[in-house]
Design brief:
Strand content: under 5%
CATH topology of the largest domain: MetI-like fold
Helix content: over 70%
Order of helices and strands: HHHHHHHHHHH
Distance between the termini: 22 Å
Number of helices: 11
CATH architecture of the largest domain: Orthogonal Bundle
Largest sheet: none
Structural class: mainly alpha
Length: 262
């Protein structure tokens, strides 16, 4: 019982400063709404009312599923392809040097340019957001995968080979843990970018999804609806991070919990 109580107290202590930050943000938001009025900046309460109305109308669930499918689908393709090719490039310097100019070009092209190209190629279909997410997130994942594989501990690998460690075990137990320490921050960054790019592409080139509903709210001058959709996006991003990436990281990197607890 005492151990459970100690865990609860520790969790509450960890939440103090994040809760303080959220409270400060809401207070500043409220003050801003008082200064500029509901048309420019609706209050948090008005945004929540708009969110509740959109939820009752069934718009939130439908749009969230469409946008989540596009953002997560594009992110999954970028994560798998970028991680695989990046690890191979990190293990083979010649491949890394060959792909480096392509990666630099992809990183240098802004997402809006990809959206314009995707609109010309795919029109106002669901492929436009997915394609834009893939080409935007792919070079980020590739870059961190290359760096993780390139900076691996070669001395530890040599020690493993001296004990005739099978290649598969050498990769899974020696190389992969180090590479994952680079990949997870890159995945989180790419995931956040995927949501932004997907919504941007939907706003400009789709008739459904959260981006399309944002465009409709802009046309109707419904600022509260815009803020409501932003809240939906933030909630979805946090849910994916806490329910998918965080448990995956704890499972694949159990040593981090030991380091943090010590």
């Amino acid at each position: 019982m005492s151990r459970a109580a100690s865990t609860v107290r520790s969790a509450l202590r960890d939440l103090r400063y994040p809760a303080l930050g959220v409270a400060l943000f809401l207070a500043l938001w409220w003050v801003g709404s008082l200064c500029y009025g509901p048309f420019i900046l609706p209050s948090p309460l008005e945004a929540c009312r708009a969110l509740w109305r959109l939820t009752l109308e069934g718009a939130v669930g439908k749009a969230a599923l469409v946008t989540a499918g596009r953002a997560l689908g594009g992110f999954a393709v970028a994560a798998v392809l970028g991680s695989t090719v990046g690890i191979l490039a990190g293990l083979h310097p010649a491949l890394a040097r060959t792909l480096r100019p392509i990666t630099a070009m992809l990183l240098g092209i802004p997402p809006i340019a990809w959206i314009v190209l995707a609109m010309l190629w795919f029109g106002t279909t669901g492929l436009t957001p997915v394609f834009t997410v893939v080409v935007t997130a792919l070079p980020i994942v590739f870059a961190v995968a290359v760096e993780g594989a390139r900076t691996r501990d070669r001395g530890l690998e040599d020690m493993g080979r001296s004990f005739d460690t099978p290649p598969a075990m050498l990769f899974l137990d020696v190389r992969l843990p180090h590479i994952l320490s680079y990949l997870f921050p890159g995945w989180v960054t790419a995931l956040g970018l995927s949501w932004k790019v997907a919504v941007m592409a939907e706003l400009l080139a789709s008739t459904d999804g959260i981006g399309a509903d944002l465009a409709l709210a802009r046309v109707n001058l419904e600022t509260a609806d815009v803020l409501a959709w932003i809240i939906v996006l933030l909630a979805m991003l946090l849910a994916v991070d806490l329910l998918l990436l965080d448990p995956l990281q704890r499972r694949l990197e159990p040593w981090r919990r030991t380091v943090r607890s010590s």
